Amino acid sequence: MPHITLANYKDIPVMSFIHKMGTFYKGKEKVRVDFQTIGSFINTKTLFYSPTITEELLDLHSDHHRNFASFIDDEESVYLPGKWVPHCTLANRLSEEKLKDAYNYCLKMDEKLKGEINRIGLIRIDSKKHAPLIYSESLI
Predict the structure, then answer these.
(1) How many CB atoms are located within 10 Å of the residue 60 CB?
(2) Cβ distance 98 to 106 under 8 Å?
(3) Residue 80 and residue 75: Cα distance in Å, rounded?
(4) Which of 65, 72, 90, 134 matches a 20 to 30 Å C-alpha distance to 12?
């Protein structure tokens, strides 16, 4: 499912986090996003669309981190304010050739992509890189 990651945690009290999510995100508004940039992180073989940075997107991210600060357990996280590169992954673990092909394909897109962040979810990534959804809250 397409997504933009706001934060990551190593080990949190899940039920407490879910309770706070339900309280904090209930009644929060959707955030519109426009994607006009494609990119790749260095040495990752990952291709992504990057949303235009708007005040609403930055507010969503900073509000999350301010309100969930007591759960932060990874001071090196690339999702912390000041380190965050918002992105929506298109493909990862590509061969160099496939990455070039995918990048070139995206360069030829004529239309800007638009969307909205309409749900906030909590996933747990297991040892097999599966990421089942544990909880989500719809935005209004």
Answers:
(1) 23
(2) no
(3) 8
(4) 90
User: What's the sign of the alpha-carbon dihedral 92, 95, 101, 107?
Assistant: positive
Query: Encoding tokens for residue 88?
Result: 């929506």
Query: Is the pTM for the entire model greater than 0.90?
Result: yes
Encoded tokens for 1: 């499912």
Task: Tell me which residue has tokens 């309409």.
Answer: 118
> Read out DSSP for 66-115?
HHTGGG---TT-TTSTTT----EEEE-S--HHHHHHHHHHHHT--SPEEE
State percent of the chain over pLDDT 70.
100
Radius of gyration from C-alpha coordinates of the chain: 16
Q: What does the pLDDT look like over 65-121, one tens digit per residue?
A: 999 999 999 999 999 999 999 999 999 999 999 999 999 999 998 888 999 999 999
Contacts of 107 (CB under 8 A, 6+ apart): 38
What is the reported pLDDT for 128? Answer: 82
What CA–CA distance (Å, rounded) separates 31 from 28? 9
In the prediction, which pLDDT does 98 show? 96
